[in-house]
Amino acid sequence: MPTPEEAQNKELDRKLSALNNNSEYYNSMSIFRILSDRLIESLNKNASSANRLSCTLIWLNVIMTIGTLVAVWIAVMMFLRPH
C-alpha cells in the first residue's frame, strides 16, 4: 500500500504527463499550480532546515546590528573627545 505522499506524487505525475500530452482538460495555469504544489510540498519537508536557516539569519542580523551600534558609539566618542 503506497503512503499518502507517494499517492500524491503519483497523482501529480499523472497530471503532469496529461499536460505534456496536450490534454484539453488542463490549461496553462494548471501546470503552474501543480509545480507550485510540488514546491510547497518540498518546502514543508524541509521546514526544519528552513527554520534553522531563519534562526541563523536572525542571530546574524542581531550580532551585526550590535556591532554597528558599537562602531557608531566608538566613532562618536572619538569625535567628542577633547582635543
Identify the notable features of this structure and list them briefly.
2 domains, rod-shaped, mainly alpha, 83 residues, single chain
Protein described:
By secondary structure, the chain is an all-alpha fold. The chain has helices spanning 4-20, 28-45, 47-80. The chain has two domains: 1-45; 47-83. 83% of the residues lie in helices and 0% in strands. It starts with a helix and ends with a helix.
Q: How would you concisely characterize the structure shown here?
A:
The protein is mainly alpha-helical. It has helices spanning 4-20, 28-45, 47-80. The chain starts with a helix and ends with a helix.
Helix-strand layout with pairing:
Layout: H1 4-20, H2 28-45, H3 47-80
Helix pairs in contact: 1-2
**Main sheet properties:** none
The tally of structural domains comes to: 2
Determine the fraction of residues in helical runs and give it as a percent range. Answer: over 70%
How many strand segments?
A: 0
Question: SS-based structural class?
Answer: mainly alpha
